[in-house]
Design a protein that fits this description.
The protein has helices at 2-8, 11-31, 38-58, 62-67, 69-82, 105-124, 135-154, 158-175, 179-200, 203-213, 224-236, 247-250, 262-295, 299-313, 337-344; strands spanning 96-98, 101-103, 317-321, 327-331. With 346 residues, it is mainly alpha-helical. The relative contact order is 0.12.
């Protein structure tokens, strides 16, 4: 049995993950040197917890995990409701604080909802692959998706909610939903986006979109962090400024440098070569995940794999409230990779 498990492990994914983990820990060491390495210690703690869990899960068939996903789904819904009554952090009620540890239910919801959606879709398709395109069955899938997504929007955490939308899109596409629904969805989005922008979104959300497209509209406010991240990326050039020597990083211009802008830190202090390696590793991860989805033994495994591939593929945005109440726009670190070449080799 052990030989079978070892044979079935996708070693490319494991190796890429370990390399990214090592680079991340080195970057966190630099990012947290002025704060007694608190977040680095927390990250190491979670690594130590995660590795045994990963090993245990290797010995559990995903069919069993999918079967218990309705129970996990119910628990995560309760947690997503409970977190709405916590104290806001950076303008969002997304975390449970237990002592020095912060837990964000939405992060667990990403995996649990993928498992639940995969189970629902695979059960629907037992009577035929076209069943997923029938309106009553499609509504069941949408309800399963909408409950956690709306709770996450309520926090508010629009970036994570968008990640849920993309997971659903990827999984329905893999399930073979009829093209007319895909075309209808695209048309709906084209019509709904401008209507939402002009008549539904609050003013601060519009500002986020505007500054996302053009950070120079508000260089000292909502666009400040993006501009600083681009300066950091450009300053790294080919070999970087050296660990603990990044100007934007160490002088406090990057915020939050331990999460959303960790890639900017890597580019500034480790340079083009290491930062390019990070991008290549993510491309390999996505490619391997899609390969796993294509070669899975059944539809359930395929849907789980493609849903998790989305977690790696999709960058998302967050917002933070400064002390003066101004909302600062941030893009997840990988979303600024495209800017990096431009500012490294002007």
């Amino acid at each position: 049995m052990k030989r079978k498990i070892l044979k079935n492990i996708e070693w490319g994914i494991l190796i890429c993950t370990l390399i990214l983990l090592a680079i991340g820990l080195v970057a966190l060491t630099s990012a947290t040197q002025n704060s007694d390495y608190d977040e680095l210690k927390r990250q190491i703690m979670w690594v130590c917890i995660s590795i045994p869990i990963m090993i245990i899960i290797l010995f559990i068939d995903y069919d069993f995990i999918a079967k218990i996903s309705p129970v996990l789904y119910g628990i995560i819904i309760v947690l997503l409701i409970g977190v709405l009554f916590t104290e806001p952090i950076n303008g969002a009620t997304s975390w449970f604080n237990i002592g020095s540890v912060s837990i964000q239910p939405a992060e667990f919801a990403k995996i649990i909802c993928i498992l639940m959606l995969a189970l629902v879709i695979s059960k629907i398709q037992k009577n035929g692959r076209d069943e997923v395109s029938r309106i009553p069955k499609l509504l069941l899938i949408l309800i399963t998706f909408l409950v956690p997504t709306l709770l996450i929007i309520k926090q508010p955490d629009y970036g994570t909610a968008l990640a849920f939308v993309m997971a659903l899109v990827f999984m329905l596409f893999a399930a073979g939903i009829k093209k007319r629904y895909i075309i209808a969805a695209i048309l709906l989005v084209v019509i709904a986006v401008p209507l939402l922008y002009f008549f539904v979104l609050p003013e601060h959300a519009k500002t986020r979109i505007d500054v996302f497209l053009n950070p120079d509209l508000d260089p000292r406010g909502a666009g400040y962090n993006i501009i600083q991240s681009k300066l950091a990326i450009g300053a790294g050039e080919l070999l970087g400024m050296g660990l603990f020597k990044g100007n934007q990083t160490q002088l406090g211009f990057l915020y939050p440098k331990t999460t959303d802008f960790i890639f900017s830190l890597i580019a500034e202090e480790m340079g083009f070569i290491v930062a390019a390696g990070v991008i290549i590793l993510y491309v390999i991860l996505i490619t391997k995940a899609i390969y796993v989805a294509k070669t899975a033994k059944d539809d359930l495994g395929s849907y789980i794999a493609i849903g998790i591939a989305r977690c790696v593929f999709l960058p998302y945005a967050r917002e933070y409230r400064n002390d003066n109440g101004t909302i600062t726009n941030n893009r997840y670190s990988t979303s600024i990779c495209k800017l990096w070449w431009k500012f490294t080799f002007k």
